[in-house]
Amino acid sequence: MGKSTLAQYLASTAWPARYATLDDPLTLSAATSDPDGWLRGFAEGPVFIDEIQRVPDLLRAVKLSVDQRREPGRFLLTGSANFLTLAKIGESLAGRVAIVELLPFAWREIAEQPPPTWLKGIFAVANASQLLDALERRAKISSAYPWHDEILWGGFPPVRLLMDAGARLEWFRSYQETYLNRDIREIANIHRIPDFNRLLVVLASRTGQILNVAEVARELGMQEMTVRRYIGLLETTFQISRVYPYFVNIGKRVVKRPKIYFIDTGLVCHLMGLNTWESVRNSAKFGSIVETWVAGELRKWMNAGSGDLQLYYWRTHQGHEVDFLLVKGEQVVAFEVKTSVNLPSSSFRSLAFLKGVLGERLRLSVVLYGGEEPKILGPSTVAVPLQQAFGPTAVDES
Description:
This protein is of the alpha/beta class. The protein has helices spanning 3-11, 25-33, 35-40, 57-68, 107-110, 117-120, 128-136, 147-153, 157-162, 165-187, 193-204, 213-220, 224-236, 265-271, 277-281, 286-303, 349-358, 386-390; strands at residues 18-21, 47-50, 75-77, 209-210, 240-245, 259-262, 310-315, 321-328, 331-337, 362-369, 375-378, 381-385. The strands form two sheets. A nine-stranded mixed β-sheet has the order 4-6-5-7-8-9-10-12-11, with helices on both faces. The chain has a three-stranded parallel β-sheet with strand order 1-2-3, covered by helices on one side. The longest helix is centred in the middle third of the chain and has 23 residues, at 165-187.
């Protein structure tokens, strides 16, 4: 997702580090045969080691080196998987490492603009009127980056540089093949890649839905234990993420299974065979795909913030559901996602129910929708167009 390019840029500017990639066969061989000796070759300065999951024993050598000389900034380690969660990596770097998750491009990032300011200050807003004022202070919305491109193409840097339909299709095909035949085989002993690939496609059709592993296993004719293992690998390799239900101290029965979201909607569209905006718009899964995209935009904004925010969903067994709850301590901001341009009263019925449950803990409710104008729906409820919520402006915000 551009991690190598970003790290190499850092190593060539403010952080003058030597670069080593374990994609190189000779480097891989040397690091595998003698991790400690290979690492000592970089003793004189900082080093950037790319694709470190290919040599798990290097984590042990890095830990030993750090313990011998505690000096911040000596190592930058990147990988195509969350290598700290892999079972075959036994050494812990707890207390010795800062972890940065590099997600695909956000919508405003593609336009080289910072995160939306109204989101950054949302927990300081007291009511719907103040939030509407914050939205209206933004500069004119740019039409150069239509939101349907963001969903169909996704945020992988190579895809956004291509912007050609045929090249997009070929890139995702190659990405899927490389992911299955290299990344997955390197970190796990999987003999039945076709089964893993079928699971990948089935889960793409279930993005934005509550994860029922037993149901997925029955659909694929696979053992439930195997499906659970494969889903864990998809999460470890940054293909999917889970959003868990919010149910602490609200005194109601709620659904306790997580929802599953793909990291990138461009990949979802590819796996589902949706190669044009018309096919996406007409798909029965359109609402789930848009919800997946919103989940991604929220996570990217959260990663760029202070790090004290959590993302949940809320759903009762009686059928009340709210797509996302952004939680900061005891405070909550709710988000509902609607693709329609109109908002019937049913659009925020669950938000009203949630307000009755959470009371003052629910500061604001935001309905993200496909219309063009922000609207106040109640004292603490606002409807915000998707384009205005996450899209770039014609000029930078002041």
